[in-house]
Amino acid sequence: MAKKQYDLLFKLLLIGDSGVGKTCILYRFSDDAFNTTFISTIGIDFKIKTIELKGKKIKLQIWDTAGQERFHTITTSYYRGAMGIMLVYDITNARSFENIAKWLRNIDEHASEDVVKMLLGNKCDMTDRRVISKERGEKIAIDHQIRFLETSAKSNINIDKAFYDLAEAILDKMPSQSSTNSMSIRPVEQESNKPQGGCC
Amino acid sequence: MPPPPPPSKLCSTESASICREFADNWSHYKSLLETDSEQDILNVLNTLEAVRVKWQKSDAEARYYKEKLSKSEKNSNELKSAHERLNGKLLHCQATLDRVSKSKDAIADELKGYKIQWEKLRSILKDSDKAFVSDGLLAIINNVEKPSSSLNVTTRTRYRNEETQSTYDDGQSDIDYDNSGEVLLDVSQEDVTSAAAPSHRRSNRKRPSTSAQTPKLSHSTFSFDDVEATPSKRSRNIEDTEVPAIVRTKKSSKRKPPPCILQSMKRSLSESNLIDAKDETIPIKPKAHTPHLNASKNTFDFSSPMVSSWTYGQEIDRRTHRVKVFNTVFETCDVCTKRFGITATNSLKCVDCNIRFHRHCQSRAPMPCVPKVPMPKTPSKQKCPLAQYCPETHPFIPPLIIHCIVALERDRLNSEGIYRLTSNAEIVGKLYQEFLTQRKIPILSSVETENITGCIKKFLKELRDSLIPSTSFEQFIHAIESNDEQQIITCVFELPAPNRDTLAYFILHLQKVSQHSQTNKMPIENLATVLAPTIIEYPALVTLENVEKLNRNQVMILLRLLKLPTGFWKTFLDSNMDTEFSTTRSILSETQTIGSTPILSSLTPTKPSKRGRRSVISNILDLQSDYSTSKTSVNSSPVTPIIQPLSNALKGMRRISFKAAI
């Protein structure tokens, strides 16, 4: 094959309030592991994972940002290079949901125009502590015309699907790839509990 | 009257005889009746009674004697035991006597040894440089001579008191002897710094006791340094002298400078002389103060020897309002929000935080009271330095921080992800503005934990310079990378006073938070990660390349600060800088964590010129601890006067060394 071990490089970014589980999502996706320790991210961190999609090897470079307000000045500088942004909130924490608007504003301000956004409601395994219903999540996603999934890094629900979906959306958007592809953003179809596609 | 004789008809010989017999009996009976047998019976009875009484008496007597017997038995028993006891005592006394006589012999032997040595030395002296040293030295030796013998005795008795082992004395005397010999050797080898060996220390340890018991001696030894200046002041008879004095002579004849300093240092310290210690500290004090305050780049003048702190000795989180009557009609009570009305005497006002309430609302007034700081007036869009948010007196902590932390510590330390979870920017902004602009402090009980922590974070972020300013960043990093606790402490000390106090208060709070890490999942590592960028300013320029390293450094700094002992941080709140200089040291050495390097030794500067001092200090420290351990057994009066001046002198030394470090 080619010299390069991948055909495309996608830069993804995980943002959201602190403590919503951004790092856990990333760890679940890259290492298929879950850590219950409650450790904050310092500044910014990234992981790399190569996936295969539509016959192409795609290298995902996923940036994990710190949710702390004080880090925002740093993390916003990473927005520009990102091709896809995952905005995570915590279904057990109303504040993180309220702050979605703020994050979206941030994206509008700092990210490039054609960035693909995705909203993730994490910790969906904790049904007894849920305060944000799935409908509210879907509604805000439709309002802002972005994809939406409820995930759980702990129980590994929809984690792989989220990344694959986002990668696919970016791939679809690539001008060289399919010029006929419409720019319209379609609402996500019913998600299945099984992760789509295998990971390498 | 006799009965009529029986009829003759019936009279026969037999009946006659019977009749006679009957008559006899009758007469006998009659006679019997006539005699006063009653008297006899009475007599008998009397006798019986007498016997009975006698018997009773004797019985009582017997009992009495029995009692007496038992008593005397007991007595004898007691006497026996007493006798035994006395016997034991006697034996003990004998043993002690034996011991004493033995030790006396030993001392006599020793004395003889000294005498011999003295003679030898005297002859040597006479032979060698008689011309030079002669008068002065001999005079001093003379002076020393008399007490020297008493010195030996006193030290020995002291040791005896400490450990009642007769064998120990002999060994001790040997050590003593050898010891001074060692000192002599050291000096002659011109290796003075290494002379601060354990053996040396012991000789040092003895000296104070002598100086206490025989003040004259110590005085004469002390004035020894100016021998050359005033050589022949005291000239008395020469007989024999103490070994330390010999050391001195040798030295002054050979080489003076460094050993002399060292020795004199030691002496001045071991001397029970309070004035000396003070003399050393006083000239240094102003010097110490200025550089530190220069380091604080501050528009405020915190240097003036402070007005007492606004806490008035109360704990910050429990400080009460200082109320005075105030007259108003139209204003409302800050507690119940009702008007004061015409009954003007009803209304009270706190002179510090400016809160107003009805007299009957006072008990419900929000606590604690922190002096109100007027909203800093700065040109718009310009951030204010921390000092402008702080009260005018120590401790310099902004009211906002205190109120928020008190609210958090009341019942929120267990909330999960405290300080980590993101706040609502709007609510926080409102809270922040309320705190700074409104007279009445916002009620925090209804505010969510995240927003309170958010308010603290926002306040710290909005400062012109963070708690640890950018100018200190490199210094802190350097200190932490070299893992030198002393340097870190120096860095903290060099922060401006408001930054230091606020940092101390905040870190104490964070340490409390981390104690609840079981429930709030925020151990110090997490807290450091989350708060490091808020507390520590980036040094100069931040680029995408260096930001990661800077972030990690920030976390490292905060983590290290969080690991400093609680007692260290408390000092900043408890006392103002003036007193801190002396107290912090001692607190540090007390609260020091096991495993880290001893603070005191690391506190002293590493400059070679100060080496001597350091060894002196450690000596003194040992010495002091020796005293404190032996204090229980030695309750004789001479010990106590030594300890105090020693500690004073020690304090002086600490000061000196600390200053030098800065």
TrEMBL record, chain A:
Intracellular or extracellular location(s): Endomembrane system
Membrane topology: Lipid-anchor
Pfam families given in the database record: Ras (PF00071)
PROSITE patterns on file: RAB, RAS, RHO
Region described as Disordered: 177-200
Top-rank taxon, per record: Eukaryota
A GO-annotated cellular component: cytoplasm
CDD domains: Rab8_Rab10_Rab13_like
Protein family membership: Belongs to the small GTPase superfamily. Rab family.
Protein name as catalogued: Uncharacterized protein
Species this chain originates from: Panagrolaimus davidi
Highest classification ranks of the organism: Eukaryota, Metazoa, Ecdysozoa, Nematoda, Chromadorea
UniProtKB/TrEMBL annotation, chain B:
Keyword Zinc found: yes
Region (Disordered): 190-243
Compositional bias per record (Polar residues), positions renumbered to this chain: 209-223
Source taxonomy: Eukaryota, Metazoa, Ecdysozoa, Nematoda, Chromadorea
GO biological process, one term: mitotic spindle midzone assembly
Cellular component, GO, one term: midbody
Domain Phorbol-ester/DAG-type: from-to ranges: 320-369
Keyword annotations of the record: Metal-binding, Zinc
Organism: Panagrolaimus davidi
Residue span, Rho-GAP domain: 384-569
Molecular functions per Gene Ontology: GTPase activator activity; metal ion binding
PROSITE patterns per the UniProt record, alphabetical: RHOGAP (PS50238), ZF_DAG_PE_1 (PS00479), ZF_DAG_PE_2 (PS50081)
Database matches in InterPro entries: C1-like_sf, PKC_DAG/PE, Rho_GTPase_activation_prot, RhoGAP_dom
Protein name: Rac GTPase-activating protein 1
